[in-house]
Specification:
With 295 residues, the chain is of the alpha/beta class. The chain is built from 9 helices and 16 strands. The strands form 4 sheets. Strands 12-11-13-16-15-14 form a 6-stranded mixed β-sheet, with helices on both faces. It has a 4-stranded mixed β-sheet with strand order 2-10-5-7. Strands 3-4-8-6 form a 4-stranded antiparallel β-sheet. Strand 15 and strand 16 form a beta hairpin. Helix 2 runs parallel beside helix 4. The radius of gyration is 25 Å and the shape is elongated. The chain starts with 8 loop residues before the first helix and ends in a 9-residue tail after the last helix.
């Protein structure tokens, strides 16, 4: 029998049959809640989206993704809950991609029982400020890719297309719309407009150059077509020359050097929420520094 198992009359008869005349048990006192009930209540309040809760032995509740999703985590709220003495929660990293059936969080209680007052405190915090975790589904995203090179766009495509496919396959997607163009402001602007007419979920600009900022060709082309430049520079290595813009609700990413290698970089950090149609802010990019040293 697992720790924390609730004894039934049948269990008692089985123990007698096995020759166990005495066992140590714990009885709930007034004002206490059993560990399974405590983690069930907390798990029901802490998460939302495409997930399901499964109880496990030892006062645990596991949360699993029901479909491919991006895990969004309120880090400050998670810290607050984990400062209590009764319940702790472990989650997948914020912005991480989780395929269907993957465990994305575990709720664990103190052994055997939790004080009703402590559980109520946790539940009230979650109801007031929650959820801690969202399993935001990734459903049929479309990815547009623009390859650019100062001499000939097809050169960039030849260099990067294989790596691009490898990167996107990590998230179960393939490029839906692809163009290649000379890296010149007017040409890049026209190509971006053409791709945006297809209403993609996200646009990736793969350039063979390493621009110094929004004033260079790709950034000027974004401005030319009316994009909002959300963020330049990311506290991530590789990928610090990251440029994020939005045309209406469609994110456009320029990440020089990030398509030369399949090794993890800033694109891998921000793609999952964007594929789940979550609008990543400049502030959230700035928060990527903790854990941003990828290799």
């Amino acid at each position: 029998m697992a720790k924390g198992h609730v004894l039934s009359e049948e269990d008692v008869r089985l123990l007698e049959t096995e020759g166990l005349g005495q066992v140590w048990v714990t009885e709930l006192e007034e004002g206490e809640v059993g560990e399974d009930e405590a983690v069930s209540q907390a798990a029901a309040e802490m998460g939302c989206g495409c997930l399901e809760i499964r109880l496990a032995a030892g006062g645990r509740a596991n949360l699993f993704a029901l479909e491919d999703c991006c895990v969004l985590v309120d880090d400050e709220l998670l810290k607050q809950i984990n400062c209590t003495s009764s319940i702790v929660i472990a989650t997948s990293p914020n912005f991480s991609f989780a395929p269907a059936s993957q465990r994305i969080a575990t709720v664990k209680s103190a052994p055997f029982a939790v004080a009703q007052s402590q559980l109520e405190t946790v539940i009230n915090i979650l109801r007031e400020r929650g959820p801690i975790l969202q399993a935001r589904p990734v459903r049929s995203p479309s990815v547009a890719v623009l390859y650019t090179d100062p001499v000939h766009g097809d050169r960039a495509r030849q260099l990067f297309e294989s790596i691009m496919r490898q990167r996107l396959e990590r998230f179960g997607v393939t490029p839906t719309f692809v163009l290649a163009t000379t890296e010149e402001e007017n040409a890049v602007a026209r190509s971006l407009q053409h791709l945006l007419r297809a209403n993609p979920t996200v646009v990736l600009v793969a350039s063979t150059t390493a621009p110094a900022g929004p004033e260079d060709v790709v950034g000027r082309a974004m401005t030319r077509i009316g994009c909002h430049l959300e963020r330049f520079l990311a506290p991530v290595e590789p990928g610090n020359l990251f440029l994020l813009a939005y045309k209406d609700e469609v994110p456009i990413i320029s990440a020089p050097g990030c398509f030369r290698s399949a090794k993890p970089n800033v694109v891998d950090l921000v793609l999952p929420p964007m594929l789940a149609r979550y609008r990543v802010s400049g502030w959230e990019v700035a928060c990527l520094g903790h854990g941003g040293l990828l290799g």
